[in-house]
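Objective 1.3, modelling of assemblies. Example input:
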Amino acid sequence: MPFPLDLHELGTPVTYTIFVFIGIGFGFMLEQAGFGRSTKLAAQFYFKDFAMFRVMFTAVITAMVLVFGAVGIGILDFRKVFVPGTYLWPVAIGGFILGVGFLIGGLCPGTSIAGAATLKLDAMVFLVGVVIGVFVFGETVPYFMGFWSTSDFGRLTLPEWLGIPTGVIVLFIVVFALLLFWGSEVLEKRLDGADPADAPKARYFGAAAIVLVALIVLLLGDPSTADYWDAVAADEQARLDSREVQIHPGELLGLMNDTFVNLVMLDVRDERDYNQFHLRAARQTDPTLESVEAAAPDLIGLTPRSVIVAMSNDERDATEAWKTLVANNVINTYILEGGINEWLEIFGEDADPKPTAYPDQLAFTFTAALGGRCVASDPHSDDFELIYEPKVVIAGPAAVVGGGCG
Amino acid sequence: MAIKPVGPSVRKGKAPDPRPFPNPYLVGVGLGVVLFLSVLITGDGLGASGAVQRIWAWIENLVAPQHVETNIYLVRYAGGEAQPLNHWIVMLAIGVLIGGFISGLIGRRVYTEIVKGPRISNNTRLLFALLGGSFVGFGARFARGCTSSQGLSGSALLSVGSWVFMMAFFAGALAAAPFFKKLWND
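Predicted structure (tokens):
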């Protein structure tokens, strides 16, 4: 997945040049749409001119099918795309205030810049107004910071929220928008006497083309963990093979006792083994692909100084889980070297070894299912003198480059 | 106050003769392609209000740096070593200015003008532009984005919050419309 480009690698001058050019395209289209003129925008809300609605929703569905088409064919990694976070109430209230202001002033921040570029004095004054609004917000927000940060659902998309495949949502929105366009033409004819027959026939071809692309998005489906793993396999398999990510039990014990590290231990053995014995703070997840995938989203949003260690009885299931996590963009992830069996070999003084018949089998027996209550579940680090090569390097999150409206 | 149209697309002594705007669906496709390219190349959508925020934070930091340091919101933008203007969204806004100007030149629409409804004076229009602008500036920061980022970009990327924003935005504008008829209609 070559896109989005790694802007840090490109360097600031190149990156900023790209943004200036994107801005030129943006400003050009806004002005071509007539959005520099307040009267044209406001007329939408008196149903006298449907350009604002049509331009905006055509742009939304065009960009949507192209973005998810690019995701579907595997050239764009959607997880690296900045999606505005969902702060439900602040977004609803802010949107409403913005709507009222839009009707009074006839413009929005982007269109007022385009209007100012064509010397529209009202657009320039409007921009001064935006500065005043921004100033008032900046001075008052400390008093309602709590509310402004409420109802934070993070990065939440419609497919995730509804549990419906992206392609279905995309197709639904395209059809919905086309119906609204058709409705707007009927309304226009009734209210303003405009004849839809005067509009270019090409718009039917456009509508058909966009439905076609939406259908392709639906057919391609959402990328799977295997697709994501393929994209990173070259680097990550090498790290596995050179054993950079398999950490010695002694290092894990050190992490368990390090108050500056937020350690997440993911035990991917079945519940039976977990109940027999597990490390004290470890959480259990079934070794299946679905279970580990389901655990990944929570592990992405962790605090910066977090380390995740996957473990199974030896290394087989833990390695698979590690690959799933890494493919799903979880950072600072490691594998417990030798698994629980090696851990018990070192720390399990009271555990009895037993022969194993197949890989990733627990190689010790316990008199009772002690779970996390064994001494070996949380051994005293002072009691052991272990020599190992430390491997954990805590990296900061680097997935999302930008940050929306900055 | 009378406004005499002056600008690069108006010849001396001649009335402005702007070209008509192209078909909105066509422009919508163009805008959608620009947004797609932005997401594809940079991983970020389009935006505008963030640039205003950053330019203002820069000014405020020049005038009252101590005040900025103690404001938990502004300190993110201009506190300590932070350079508020050193951000992609400011570059994007510069591009919008250039792109709008180029488009205006092609459409012969670059001339001084106060765009307003027929029933109000220039001063009334400018007063309401200032008022509306301040509502929009406040609302945009409250919603963590404006019509460009939350509305256009976020909706295309299927953000739940952005669709809520869109509905709230249209609701706000439609709710206000009956009270401000005089501003925009004959």
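The radius of gyration of chain A is 28 Å.
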